[in-house]
Specification:
Order of helices and strands of chain A: HEEHEHEEEHHHEHEHHEEEE
CATH class of the largest domain in chain A: Alpha Beta
Number of domains of chain A: 2
CATH superfamily of the largest domain in chain A: PurM-like C-terminal domain
Shape of chain A: globular
Strand order of the largest sheet of chain A: 7-9-6-10-8-11-12
Oligomer: homodimer
CATH architecture of the largest domain in chain A: Alpha-Beta Complex
Largest sheet of chain A: 7 strands, mixed
Radius of gyration of chain A: 20 Å
Structural class of chain A: alpha+beta
Number of helices of chain A: 9
Number of strands of chain A: 12
Helix content of chain A: 25-40%
Largest interface: A-B, 61 and 61 residues
CATH topology of the largest domain in chain A: Phosphoribosyl-aminoimidazole Synthetase, Chain A, domain 2
Chain lengths: 302, 302
Amino acid sequence: MTEADFLAALRTLPIHPAARGLRDDAARLILAPLVVSTDTLVEGVHFLPDDPPRDVAWKLVATNLSDIAGKGARPEGILLNYPLSDDGWDRAFLEGLGEVLSACGTGLLGGDTVTLPSRAPRILTVTAFGGDTPAPPRGGAGENDALWVTGTIGDAGAGLAIAQGTPGPSALLARYRRPVPRLAEGRVLSRVAHAMMDVSDGLLIDAARMAEASGLAVEIDLAAVPLSAEYRRHSGDDRTARLQAATAGDDYELLFAMPANVRPAVAATRLGRFRRGTGLDLHEDGVAVPLPARLGYLHRLD
Amino acid sequence: MTEADFLAALRTLPIHPAARGLRDDAARLILAPLVVSTDTLVEGVHFLPDDPPRDVAWKLVATNLSDIAGKGARPEGILLNYPLSDDGWDRAFLEGLGEVLSACGTGLLGGDTVTLPSRAPRILTVTAFGGDTPAPPRGGAGENDALWVTGTIGDAGAGLAIAQGTPGPSALLARYRRPVPRLAEGRVLSRVAHAMMDVSDGLLIDAARMAEASGLAVEIDLAAVPLSAEYRRHSGDDRTARLQAATAGDDYELLFAMPANVRPAVAATRLGRFRRGTGLDLHEDGVAVPLPARLGYLHRLD
């Protein structure tokens, strides 16, 4: 697809007013404070070459907006850095881009298009902006705070196996391909959470990171990890299935710390608590569980 | 280089306070208004595989800050999306990154690192933020406004040929490899310019774009195009040399429109004027000059 065609198609999608119709060198944002997050996805590393391009677009934007949700911010807009390729891929990508922007109530602020040498893997970058945010830090948990998580964990990990050929239900595949950032929940929680982040690399590794950033230890009850009905039917709910869910990543749920005597105003599950010390302690109905060798994915910069 | 090593090295460079030591999921910016610009450079397309990595880092950041200069903004910080590769390349890149951040008085806000499949070309993205800006638009030129440009034109184009093997002076090569964004000039000019942009793709094509965005025609005197002493010695100053300079690109000077009776408060050269109509008219000492087939580089957005 040519740059001119791509730009013309972009102009039919939700565009932020600050983008000045994508006709200037820079977007101008007038609100503050702003949170900013950027993610790069690489074909063959973060997505599969035969993943549907509509879903790649969805996931690229949704996962970046998940960082904005983790800051309790309203999504303000995105920048897209895009490698032009064949017409079919580009058009399908644009469809998915329109879908995710509309679904998340946000718009395009600008970007850059490039042409890659032939046979180079696609590399896509999205930078997301969030406004009007109290932005609870990752490292704000206090001693005796409770650890909570929204939604269910492990669905996307099972969905990845399904995308790679394991038979399984489409609901789990959809959790992998079309994650929905917890934007509304993030805004509600940011007013009360001491610490908050999205779960992208795995529940255990992300909880350990929150504890480390807060200068505390965290205890998690494996039996409390919330599993969906589809996940239980597909993978079971024994210790192996729970450990798999808690280390699989790609959940894009919100993990947050709150005073132990407060209940969150959104659907969430209490997983454990923070205490003086360092590291992560795992138990299951009161019995200590040895930590698995791998707590989550390690290929990402947070 | 591993992500952990890369992050540790990044933390020794100028870091923006909003980056929270590169230990959180998002940077938080508290000032407004902000201008934002993003650029992606591809190995083999925008830079040569054997370009020194220190210079690649410099150019990546400097060219993006040039868009911020074009908006008359103070550079606030940058995000970096970086593909980790071999230790030597990464370390040299980091050196250049520190140099350009220090030289431009700005810092790192955050970013993302990825690993590429083997033999994939490097793709680097920088997103730059500018604050405290009146942000003159690209399309704000008025009828009878004069067109001006800072500095000299064509040096970087000659420098590219030198980088590719043509013998020539190192001063021209440096203009190609180490462009200096006109940040101070941009801040002064933004208070009086009706329209402003940086010259990245070529003087003629960028002037034509400013005219088109302003709904006007522009006339340029080829004899007025400012050439450096090094450029004249290397390429001459006849019509061919002047047309080459005016279409070569990579200048990163500021092009701006001002009322005809005002002189800018920075070193700049008056090139022509805007008038009712459309298109670009080129003349040389009063004689019409046919437009060259190629007005500049066309591989870039904006």
